[in-house]
Amino acid sequence: MTSVPHEGGRWWETGGRRSSTFTRLLRHGFTDPSAAERLLDAPALSALRTDPLLLDALGATADPDLALLGLVRLVEAQDDETDRRELLDTLLAAKPLRDRLLGVLGASEALADHLARHATDWRALVTYEAGDLHPGVEEFERQLADAVDEDSLRVAYRRCLLSIAARDVCGTTDITETAAELADLATATLRAALAIARTAAPADAAQCRLAVIAMGKCGGHELNYVSDVDVIFVAEASDTSADEGKAVQAATRLASHMMRICSDTTVEGTIWPVDANLRPEGRNGPLVRTLSSHLAYYQRWAKTWEFQALLKARPVAGDLDLGEEYVAAVSPMVWQVSERENFVPDVQKMRKRVVANIPVGDVDRELKLGPGGLRDVEFAVQLLQLVHGRSDTALRSGTTLDALAALAEGGYVGRVDAVQLDDAYRFLRTLEHRIQLYKLRRTHLVPEDDADLRRIGRSMGMRTEPITDLKRAWKRHTSVVRRLHEKLFYRPLLDAVAQLAPGETRLRADAARERLVALGYADPSSAMRHLEALASGVSRKAAIQRTLLPVLLGWFADSADPDAGLLNFRKVSDALGKTPWYLRLLRDEGAAAENLARILSAGRLAPDLLMRAPEAVALLGDERGLEPRGHAQLAQEALAAVRRADGGEQAVTSVRAVRRRELLRTAAADIIASYGTEDTPAVADQGALVDQVGAAVSDLTAATLDGTLRAVVRDGWGDTLPTRFAIIALGRFGGHELSYGSDADVLFVHEPREGVSDHEATQAANKVVSEMRRLLALPSSDPPLLIDADLRPEGKSGPLVRTLKSYEAYYRRWSLVWESQALLRAQPVAGDEELGRAFIELVDPLRYPAEGLGDDAVREIRRLKARMESERLPRGADPTLHAKLGRGGLSDVEWTVQLLQLRHGWAEPGLRTTRTREALAAACAAELIPAEDAAILDEAWVLATRVRNAVMLVRGRPGDTFPSDARELGAVGRYLGYDPGHVGDMLEDYRRTTRRARAVMEALFYDA
User: Fold this and answer.
1) Does the pLDDT of residue 8 top 80, yes or no?
2) CA–CA separation, 946 vs 693, rounded Å?
């Protein structure tokens, strides 16, 4: 029985021959055997449909379906039967052509389109001479020589590209050879385009010497299939007597025409964009400059990244002698860049991964800029070249893998690391090439469609499970790059002080110091001593340190003071080195090591707190270890510590230890949230950070006072004090807005118990206060807590402690308006709760007076504020940068809000709060202040509070102004979210924010 093929027939209904063919097609990798059968049955291929050579060759391609479709289109595009027969006969007879042609058709839809339009170009794949295997610029120039216009150049370019792609997909060339051929073809194309432009404007050509300098991947001899070709143009007059200005104008016209020839889209498509934006001043600068103009710019204005770009500068077209003069002139500046003043902060910025501008949904598919991508390898290699190339000329290669090999040979990169990085880079570049080759489009995104992934996987030799294997290999290589990216910088520093395996080259001592300076270490000799102390030797501890330190050193280098980070790490390690859990915690708990590095290098306060009890490092390994603890939990722990202690001093020592640990917890959480980590960005809501710190420190202070009060009472009177006693918080303490260095502003109130005389009760209360202040200020390894009672009635002249009746009598008869203002923050925090509530009931009518403040009282508050501004600002302080008393600072915002509370609190319940931001929000909700003005005041208050917190964290002591020391100022900037080198922006932003707040304050406080 003979089956007759017919359009649309089901294969299982058409007899044995079709069923057999269908099975064979499946076995050869076709995903749509029915469509493939129809194509094989087409007149163009009917004679070859059963030829085993053809099916085997198709099955060897990346996408057999695509290859077969492209072949049918190519055969049908031949002019006549003779040409078709020649193509098919050659295809079957010549294996090199068969592999090349079908390989291209199975990998590139775009090149199949080209062959269908230019049906004779398949002949470019027939030759198989030695010179054809690895053509250079001269060979490509010969192949482009007949191009006389844009269209003919595009056709000739695609014909050359066809040959390169054929050698690539067949494995004749590896990725480095393919990238070099693409760069050579680009060079020949730029020369051909410039020749066309010169022919079109012979007068311009005669007037000038024009050199085209390749940059980027073209300059580095490592171009992609589809990439911008980065160039810089240099021109001079054709002779010394010619007008230089006119020569530059002529060169500009030639350069512009050359760029259009390559970049414009015609009926034959485009070649690639020519991008001249790496020139001095970028797109805002002139397209063409003279050599002297280039040098003047680089000597005076160029940034580090511009010298980094010049690593790859290479003359490729036009006047090559002028191009060589340019490279010879700029090269010394490239290799001296590490001596520039801003090199270290520039390096810190350049080392940050370039993911900020990638759409969130694309980050995981981004092959070039994503974490573990090509840019990580290229930037790491280039930065090491900039650091060490000044003294070692062997490193001065523009090609990434050549430079990486030279770095490994010189001991600047570990050999094993270099091999792994080389392997990963080759894989990622090959993947990039295969993605771009399909449609010849510029993209760095790994596709999501299974058909695309299958084609790419097969093109890279993965035939069994191409999709699964490709994804697995891709993730493995990006993981390698991510892991080695930081180690590339730091592992050789450790090798310089450790025992090396045979055959390894040690980083020279001067090169190690060179690298440490480039990475921000001000004292490289001390840093090397710390590394030697931590990582030398053969102990298990030293081995773990050698594993940890490459990454830790990177995190230290991201801070404003890497030296302090490393020194503090050594101190902690010396203190905890013999405890079995310490290094295991850092090694095994992913976040612990990074969190520790951030804390140790962010300033003095957190490391000082940690050094007093290094075992607190354990907090960093607990997933919830940095969450703030509430007042109830803190008070319970403080009271438990008091119960366990033998006497008052021991009890308060235990309470102060709890306070120190919790201050560390709060500071650590604040630092990590402000800096961010590799996996978690910095918290954007600055107000939330301020609120968290203020609440945590205020709760902790309240719990400390409560525990201390209990300890003093127990030590002196047993279970019961002769008088009921309460502590009332004022100021920022009462507002839950304490910063790290704040004193505790309080009032003390007592009420004699039944049967106890006023004298005995007052004597006991005073003794309690005196003992509390003494115990909390005793010299100790724990920070003191200073109690400030100066806001009490009559100030420093008045009694420390009063009874409720005494307060009532004073406030009724003598109270001044500033005391009503101070009482806005009154909040019971420790001691007798009922007495505390009674005090609040007593003062509520004072702080929220019925019908609001009278005009006289308002004038008095304004007078006091004006007097404070003129008298209290420290001598020599910059009023635009003083966070507390300066223009638009804390005082301006708080007095504005408090005046609103005094005037309207009686009528607006929302204003009856001790917290500034809550009261401001309530005033806005009550339409007492426009929303825009409220936002301006809130922003300034949050920023000023953050500055005070930053100063305490960085300097280890309180302050209301920005530090004058450059490193400390940089650390404040990092805490506030500014990159290295941007402290000027920070100060300007602070001035702008507070200037706007001052304008609002003046309108609301003085003019309303």
Assistant:
1) no
2) 10
CA atoms within 13 A on the CB side of 545: 27
- Give the separation between CA 231 and CA 315, rounded to whole angstroms: 9
CA 948 → CA 11, 700, 722, 740, distances in Å? 79, 19, 41, 8
Question: In 3-state terms, the chain is what percent helix, strand and coil (to 5)?
Answer: 65, 5, 30
Q: Dihedrals φ, ψ of 454, to 5°?
A: -65, -45
Query: H/E element holding 772?
Result: helix 758-777
Alpha-helix runs per DSSP H in 645-757:
648-675, 686-717, 731-734
Query: In angstroms, rounded to a whole number, what is the distance separating the alpha carbons of residues 938 and 944?
Result: 10
Q: What is the pLDDT of residue 414?
A: 82
For residue 70, give Cα distances in angstroms to 39, 156, 225, 268, 499. Answer: 10, 20, 20, 18, 59
Asked whether the predicted pLDDT for residue 1008 surpasses 80, the reply is: no
Segment (H or E) for 829: strand 827-831
| Angle, helix 52-59 to helix 81-93, in steps of 10 degrees | 70
Q: Which pLDDT score is estimated for 146?
A: 94
Q: What is the pLDDT of residues 34-46, one digit of tens each?
A: 999 899 888 888 7
Taking the C-alpha atoms of residue 692 and residue 333, their distance in angstroms, rounded to an integer, is: 49
Q: What is the crossing angle of helices 374-388 and 466-495, to 10°?
A: 20
Q: Name the strand (E) or helix (H) holding 165.
A: helix 150-169
Reported as half-sphere exposure (CB side, CA atoms, 13 A), residue 819 has a value of 18
Q: Tell me how far apart the alpha carbons of residues 273 and 262 are, in angstroms, rounded to a whole number.
A: 6
In this predicted structure, the answer to whether residue 10 has a pLDDT above a threshold of 60 is no
Pair type for strands 288-289 and 274-275: unpaired
CB 92, CB 51: distance < 8 Å: yes
pLDDT digits (tens, 9 = 90+) for 819-864: 999 999 999 999 999 999 999 999 999 999 999 898 999 999 999 9
Neighbouring CB atoms inside 10 A of 320's CB total 13
Q: Is the dihedral of CA 343, 345, 351, 355 positive or negative?
A: negative
Distance in angstroms (rounded) separating the CA atoms of residues 108 and 116:
13
Distance from chain centroid for Cα 887: 33
943 vs 978: CA distance, rounded Å: 13
Integer Cα distance of 561 and 606 in angstroms: 14
pLDDT above 70: residue 19 = no
The single-letter code of the amino acid at 434 is R
Q: In the chain, what is the straight-line distance between the N-terminal and C-terminal CA atoms, in Å?
A: 105
Cβ(712)–Cβ(775) below 8 Å: yes
Helix (H) or strand (E) holding 748: strand 744-752
| Sign of the CA dihedral with 392 first, then 394, 396, and 399 last | negative
Q: DSSP class of residue 70? A: H
pLDDT band at residue 495 under the 50/70/90 scheme: low
DSSP string computed for 276-305: -TTSTTGGGS-SEE-HHHHHHHHHHT--HH
Q: Give 513-537 pLDDT, tens digit per residue.
A: 888 888 888 999 999 999 888 888 7
**Cα(758)–Cα(711) distance, rounded to whole angstroms?**
23
CA 745, CA 732: separation in Å to the nearest integer?
Answer: 8
CA gyration radius, the chain? 38
861-919 confidence digits (pLDDT tens) = 999 999 888 888 888 889 999 999 999 999 999 999 999 999 999 999 999 999 999 99
**Burial category of 676 from C-beta neighbours within 10 Å (exposed 0-12, middle 13-18, buried 19 and up):** middle
DSSP string, 883-942: TTTSTTSHHHHHHHHHHHHHHHTTT-GGG--S-HHHHHHHHHHTTSS-HHHHHHHHHHHH
Mean pLDDT, residues 601-613 taken together:
92
Q: What is the DSSP code (8-state) at residue 622?
A: S
